[in-house]
Amino acid sequence: MAALVAVVAWLFFDCIALAQVIPASRTAPWQGNVGVPGGIPKRTNIYKNVVTDLEADPAGAKNCSSIIQSAIDKCPNGHVVYIPEGRFRVETPIHVGHKTPNVTLRGAGMGRTTLFGPNNNPIFTAGDASWPPPEEDPTNWIGITSGAVKGSNTITVGDSTKFVVGAPMAIAPNPLPVWAHNLGGFADTLRSMRVYFKVRSKTATTVTFDPPCPFDFSALHPTALVDSTPYMQGVGIESLTLDMSNSTAEIPIWFQQAWGCWAKEVEVKHAYERQMRWDMVVRCEVRGCYTQNVQGSGPNHEGIEFSYASWNLIEDNICNNAGAPPIILEEDITSSSCNVVGYNYVTNTDPSFWDLSFSHGSGSILNLAEGNVINNFEDDGYYGSSSYNTLFRNRISGQVRLKHFSDYYNVVGNILGDTWANTYETEVTNYWEQGIAPVYELGFPNIGNASYTGTFGPTDPPDYHALPNNLEDCQQLDRNAKATILRHGNWDYANKEVVWDNTISDHTIPNSLYLTAKPSWWGDLPWPPIGPDRAPMAGQIPAKQRFANGTPTPALAAGVTLDPRRVELSSHGGPGATPRSEQKFQTKWTKNKK
C-alpha cells in the first residue's frame, strides 16, 4: 500500500511540475498512448521453423521467398514463423496483408539470421494502404460539429456512414491556422496538419476513437478524414539482419496502414536508400534496432522514416551512418504527430548533417524527442511548418536548427553544443563564414546554408497566410521561431551554464514526459541519464553503451525461447560495430536543394 501511495504521489507531483515547466497546451498526452498497446507481445508459439519444417535453404543458394511467404499466409493468430540461423535468399518481397493479423516473423538474432535481397525489391512489406489516397476524394473529408478538443475520444458529425470501425481516421484543421504554412506549391487550404487515430465505434452521428485528441481544434474548423481500409494489427519482425549489400531496393522494410505493429532488434545494413518506411501507421514501434552504413547519402536516403504517422514510439535504437537524416518523422507534404523518439544513439559519418528531424514535410505537430544522444537536430522547413514539438533531456552535441515556420517549440532540460560553440544564437547571414558558431539557429529559410533575404515578424500569433506557397519566395529570416520558442533549463557550451526562462519560476525538470519510471529494459545505468540536474549531466544510455561495447543487440532475456526445438537462453549479441565509412557527404547544399 505504501508503495502504491508513493507511486501516486510521484505521478501527482510530476504532473504538477510538467504543467508548470511546459504548459499543457504545448504538449500531447504521450504517456500511455505511444507504441504498441500493452507493449510488444512476447509470443512463444512457433508455427513453423522454415528450415526444419519447410526445408528452406540456410546457405543462401536457393530462393526462400515462397517458403517464408506460405508460412506467413498460413500462420495462426498470435503465432511465430521462425527463421533459424543462416543466410536466406529473398528474391521477392515477403508480404503480410492487412487480413493476416497478429503474426511475427522472427529470426535467431542480429547477425545470426540474415535475409538478403539480390535485386531491387524490398525484403519485408506489411499492410495494404488504400488507393487512391483517401484525402484525394473530397467526400472523405467530413465536418466535425463538436468533440475535437484535447482529451476527447468522441466527435460528432452530420453522418458517420463513411467511418469504418478498425480503420484510420484523422482530425485536421480546415484550412491551416495562420501560424502554419505550406510550401512546395501547396496552398494552405490543403489539410496537411493531421493527427491520426483508430475508429473504435460509432453511432449515426458520433465516432469514438483512440488515442484521445491531443489538441484543441475546435476553433480551427476541424474536419475528419475517413479511410475505408482497416488497419493491419499485431504484426512484427524481430531478431534478424537484412543485408542489402547487393540490392538497390529503395526500402528494405515497409509498413503501411498499420496499428500496433513493430520492428524489434532488426539490423538493416548497407541499404541503397532508406532503412525503414512507416506510412499511415498509429501506435507502432521501432525498438532495439541497428541501422548502419547506407550505400549513399544525401536527399532520398533517409533512415527510419515515418509519414502520415501518429502515436508511434522509436526507442532504444542505434543508427550508425544510417541515412540523412537517420530518423525523420515527416517526408514531403505528409504530416506526423504525437510520436516519441526516445533514448536512441545516432552517430553519422558527416557531423554537419542533422541526425533527427520532425519536419521535412508540412504540418508536423506535438512530437517529442527525449533522452537521445545525437549531433544536430533540424526541422528544415522545406515543405512548410512544424509546431508544438518538444526536445527534452537530450544530449545534442551539434546545433538545434529550427528553420522558418518552426513555431511553439519546447526545448527543456537538454545539454547542447560542444567546445566548438562560441555563440548562443545569431541572426548574422552566412554566420559560419564569419567565424560565428551558434548553439541555436532559429528562423533561417534554407536547408543547407544560413543565408536569408529580409526578415518576417514576429507577430502574435505568427501569421503566414499571405506569404507565397513556395520556398523561393519565402527567403526571409522568420523571427517567429525565436519569439514562440520555450527554452528552459538547458545547459549549453556557449554560456557554460544553465539558461532558464525567467518567466517560469519552476526549475524542477520532470524525469520524463512519457515514462512513469525507469523502464524495465534500462539495466543498471542511472536514469534519467541526461539533464543539468544530473551528475554527470550527459550520462550513458543503453544504446550508446551497446555500440561502444560492439554488441548492438539488446541481450535476450533469460528464459526466452525462440524455437522449441532449439532453446536460446544466452545473450545473442549481434555483430561488432562496423567501422564508419570514410565517405564524406557534401556539406554545402544549394539553398533550394531537397
Produce a short descriptive summary.
With 594 residues, the chain is mainly β.
Summary keywords:
18-stranded parallel beta sheet; 13-stranded parallel beta sheet; disordered C terminus; mainly beta; disordered N terminus; 4 helices; 594 residues; globular
Can you offer a commentary on this structure?
- The longest helix has 20 residues, at 2-21.
- With 594 residues, the chain is mainly β.
- The N and C termini lie far apart (57 Å).
- The protein is 7% helix and 30% strand.
- The radius of gyration is 23 Å and the shape is globular.
Fold blueprint:
Blueprint: H1 2-21, E1 46-49, E2 59-63, H2 65-74, E3 79-83, E4 86-89, E5 94-96, E6 103-107, E7 113-116, E8 124-126, E9 141-146, E10 154-157, E11 168-172, E12 195-202, E13 206-210, E14 223-226, E15 232-233, E16 236-243, E17 253-259, E18 262-269, E19 276-282, E20 285-287, E21 290-292, E22 304-310, E23 313-315, E24 318-320, E25 327-328, E26 336-337, E27 340-342, E28 345-347, E29 354-357, E30 364-365, E31 368-370, E32 373-374, E33 376-379, E34 386-387, E35 390-392, E36 395-396, E37 400-402, E38 406-407, E39 410-412, E40 415-416, E41 423-425, E42 438-442, E43 455-456, E44 477-478, H3 480-484, E45 486-488, E46 490-492, E47 497-499, H4 542-549
Parallel strand pairs: 1-3, 2-4, 3-6, 4-7, 5-8, 6-16, 7-16, 8-17, 15-17, 16-18, 17-19, 18-20, 18-21, 19-22, 20-23, 21-24, 22-25, 22-26, 23-27, 24-28, 25-29, 27-31, 29-33, 30-34, 31-35, 32-36, 33-37, 34-38, 35-39, 36-40, 37-42, 39-45, 40-46, 41-42, 43-44
Antiparallel strand pairs: 9-10, 9-14, 10-13, 11-12, 11-14, 12-13, 46-47
